[in-house]
Specification:
- The complex is a heterodimer of chains A (about 200) and B (about 170).
- With about 200 residues, chain A is an all-alpha fold.
- Chain A has one domain.
- Chain A contains nine helices and no strands.
- In chain A, α2 crosses α3 and α2 crosses α4.
- Chain A is globular, with a radius of gyration of 17 Å.
- Chain B is of the alpha+beta class and about 170 residues long.
- Chain B has one domain.
- Helices cover about 15% and strands about 40% of the residues of chain B.
- Chain B is built from two helices and eleven strands.
- In chain B, the strands form two sheets. In chain B, strands 1, 6, 7, 9, 10 and 11 form a six-stranded mixed β-sheet that branches. Chain B has a five-stranded antiparallel β-sheet with strand order 2-3-4-5-8, with no helix packed on it.
- In chain B, a hairpin with a 2-residue loop joins β4 and β5.
- The longest helix of chain B is centred in the N-terminal third of the chain and has 15 residues.
- About 5% of the residues of chain B have low confidence.
- Classes of the chains: A mainly alpha (about 200), B alpha+beta (about 170).
- Chains A and B meet through α2, α3, α5, α6 and α7 of A and α1 and α2 of B.
Chain lengths: ~200, ~170
Amino acid sequence: MATHGAPGGPTSSALYDAATDAFRRWRTGEDAALDELVRVMSPVLWHVVRATGLDREATEDVVQNTWLTLVRSGDSVRDAQAITRWLCTAARREAWRVSKAATRTRPVEDDVLAARMPTESSPESEVVTLDDKAVLWAAMTRLPERCQRLLRIVAWEPRPDYSSVADTLGMPIGSIGPTRRRCLDKLRIELGGAA
Amino acid sequence: MTRSDDALLHAVADVYAEWDPAPADLVDGVLARLAVRDLEAEFELFTLVQNVDTGIGTRHGEAAETSASVALEFAGSTYRVLVRITDLGEGDRRLDGWVVPAFSMRVFLGPPGDALAHTRQSAYADREGRFEFPAPMHGEVRLWLLPQVASGDDGPPPFVTPPFLI
């Protein structure tokens, strides 16, 4: 169940459609449609930026600045269908600029994963279903950091731009697809066959 | 059972939404920043014309413990705004107000200055010009009022009040 608004990801074309539609209406003069776009896409940008390693406070700033950039240069987005990709890419670029400027980056697991991780995962708990989020979370934390970041991005970002993702993760663009596959396979192994 | 990649990623999205969620006020902070973008210079500064401490409820002999209130009246060139801060007891307060003459407004409440713009709370003044913050932040704050006009129409300018205390 999506308790925090519709999550992104490949299963959620609804989010992509909602964003595209809101952007199109905003560009044709419907001011309130921008609010809709902000509501739909801000949580996505949050996860996309957090996956770059910025802390929560810096992430909030980056998300706000991304929207300001859109409002100031919205004309540069010619194709409404490109809006989600434009926003996510702009957010990553801003995150990169901020992290270079302030070296505020910390690996996500330092401040979140360690604190939230269940203390022990017994063999029994690994065969419970994916609906047990604690089990999935624990499995995620056992993946390499690069896998955690990549999976968070592709889980949240509608139709991600692989070249922009590759820049963020410092990987060749051609390896994003195969790495995504390997990371999902590793996650399945960590889940002990439950998924 | 093997889940599809999509189902697994959906679960991953959910688990991040739960364990490292976006702040509850993320969207409001963005909207506040957007609403006042490049407008600060255009904001008309209201002036405080009246500041009245009053007790509500005591007049009819009701229990007065939860009813202290302060009324502020701000005036600009074309509009006035009346603000009432009611002490609900135990540190809780309520802020409500009226725009006169009535006009639909987007209303933001927050600390003075842009640096804390992301902490601004937002509300709408309805067609009667009424707005309410049921749980306003405490401390020194200002109100920003943005007339809601159809695009293309000329509306009154946006207003900002001088800082006042809640």
